[in-house]
Structures are given as structure tokens and as C-alpha cells.
Amino acid sequence: MKKNNKTTYKYSIKPKPQLFNMLIGLLLLSFIISFVPNKSTYNLYSNLTTVPIDDDNEALEITDASAQLGKEKGKKNILFIGSDEGTVDTHGRSDSMILITIDRDNKKIKATSFMRDMLVTIPDFGEHNLNHAYAYGGAELLVKTFNYNFGLDIKDYVKVDFKTFIKIIDKLGGIDIDIQSNEVQVTNTYIRSINKFNKSSSSELSGAGLQTLNGVQALAYSRNRFVGSDYGRTNRQRKVLQAITTKFSHIDYVEIVKFLVDVLPEVTTTLNIAEISDLTAWAVINRVNTLQGTYLPKLEESQHIKTDEYHIVVNKEAFKKEVQNYIFYDR
Predict the structure, then answer these.
(1) How far apart are CA 119 and CA 68, in angstroms?
(2) Does residue 99 sit in the same domain as residue 219?
(3) Last residue of a domain, one of 218, 243, 268
(4) Smallest Cα–Cα separation from 120: which of 97, 101, 100, 102?
(5) How far apart are CA 271 and CA 135, in angstroms?
(6) How many domains does the chain have?
(7) Does Transmembrane helix count among this protein's keywords (predicted)?
(8) Comparing C-alpha atoms, which of 3, 58, 45 is closest to residue 267?
(9) Strands 175-179 and 156-161, sheet pairing
(10) Do 128 and 273 share a structural domain?
(11) In angstroms, how far apart are the furthest CA atoms of the chain?
């Protein structure tokens, strides 16, 4: 089992504003703690919910070929999971799945969204939509499912549920999003549903245009799958995550520390402090300030089938090669 190393590492590096613009969503919360002085770093990290994961390749469905690819290409893959625990859904599926790829050789970070309705093979459970894996076996089974179907080498994840998501947005004072006219009605429907489930009283959107969304409104906006289907939703999720990172770039150091103390207890990750510090130092030293975002599979490369539920169907072997080519080879 993977053990959590709580040794504190201190780097004589001053954080730069551009760092905040390239780290995505809640992964930023894990990375940023290494900027805090030693004692504070330990106190912050002790609030983070760290969990072990069986890092044996076979146990995580990582083939020798995939493990070798990751090692040769200098890539570190981390799965970001936004689960729908604590919202209108009671089954706890992974509503958002974004693969964060740390590319040390090319000094960049990729954020790749995977369609939750893609039909895959879930180890020990058979053929189901991708987001069912989290409901059946939690984050570790979802990691195994990614590795098994897409030929990846994932051993780490960062997870938040949507009550935490709402809290993050509200603690930031809201985020600025340009709402399109065809998004207003559906977003308001989601707002009413979330209000009912969470016993909250968020106001609805009054119309389209650039506006500051609170936590409930931002969650409702990012969950909208009826305008542009799941492809439109993943695009909205990336817009929200970008808005979060942009908001961070305007927060001073003291406020960041206060924010982290309040939010970190609700973030779950397999990353330990040594790994977090190492990744942060790499990003700052190399001035990595770009984020390459996309989604897979592409609309034109898949079939959309509705039986008892909605499925996105791909040629599995061809898609596995496509994922590996993009993640490992930048093709």
C-alpha cells in the first residue's frame, strides 16, 4: 500500500501569479500548500484528507507497456474526480472526470475531460457507462477502469464532491461567467433542484450575459447537459474551473491561507506532501503557465445510442490508441 509521507519540504521560491492561471480547479488547492512556511505547511496538509491506494501495477490494471510509456515520456497522470455525492443524485457517480497530465519534458500541463456516458468495461462489473465505476467501487475502481480501457498509468487522484464545490465558489466570492441565452432556463431548473436537495435558497439567473455566479448557480451551470449535450457540459465545466483559477490570481497570500484552512479538509487525494511539493516546485521553476484542455472522445469519432440509458460508443482499441497518442506522444 502507498504510504503518506508527511515530511515538509521548503523551497526558496517565491510564488508567481502566472502559476495560478495554469493549475486547474482543486488540484491547485493541493499544489499551493507547499508555498506556505514549514509549520503552516504541515498544519494545512494535516487538514487534507489523504487516502492510500494500492500502487501495484497489476492491481491498478496498468500494463507493463503503459507503465513504460509513462516512464519514458516523463508524464505524470492524476485523475481529477468531481463526484455527485451531496447533490440531487444519491448514488454518488463521478459527474466530472478530468485527467491532469504533468508533462515534465515539454514543460506543460494537459487537462483532458472524458465523457461520462462512454461505454467501457469496468473490471469485475462488465459493460457500463464510465461514470458508473465510481458508484460501484469508488475512486480506486474508477482509476482501474481508466487504466484498463485507455492504456494509462494512473496511480493518483484528487476528489471533491459538489457540496465542497459550492463552498469553494462561495468562499471565493463567486466567479464570473458569460451565460448564453439558451443556458438560462435549464440552469435555473438545476438551481431549483439543488436548492431543494441542499435546503439552500440561491436566487435564479435573471438573464443572459456576463455575471457573477454563487456556488449553487455555478454548480447548476456546470451540470447542464441539455444544452450541447455532455460535450457542452464538459466545456462549461472547464470554463468554471478556469474562472476559479482566474479568481485565485487576484487573492492575496493571507486570504489564500485562510481559504485553504477552511476547504482542504473536504478534499481527498492520494498525493502525499513530497509529491505535492515536487510537482509545485517543477511548475514554478519551469514557469509553466499554459493549460492544454480538450475532451475525449470527439463527437465525430463516436456513436450515440439510447437503450435503457444513454451511451457513447467508440471503437475501443482505436480509442485506446488515440488516448495514448494524445497523452503520451502529443499526437
Answers:
(1) 27
(2) no
(3) 243
(4) 97
(5) 22
(6) 2
(7) yes
(8) 45
(9) unpaired
(10) yes
(11) 57
Cα–chain-centroid distance for residue 232? Answer: 17
- Apex CA 252: angle with CA 210 and CA 104, to 5°? 85
Distance CA 228, CA 231 (A): 6
Residue type, 141: L
Domain span including residue 144:
17-162+252-329
Cα gap 45→30, rounded to integer Å: 8
Quick check: pTM over 0.90? no
Distance of CA 205 to the CA centre of its chain: 26
Total length of the chain: 331
- 326 by Cβ neighbours in 10 Å (0-12 / 13-18 / 19+) ranks as middle
- Tens-place pLDDT, residues 76-106: 999 999 887 644 444 466 778 989 999 988 8
Tell me the C-alpha distance between 115 and 99, whole Å: 11
Domain boundary among 243, 269, 301: 243
pLDDT in tens, 191-218: 999 999 889 999 999 999 999 999 999 9
- For 284, the grid coordinates are 514554478
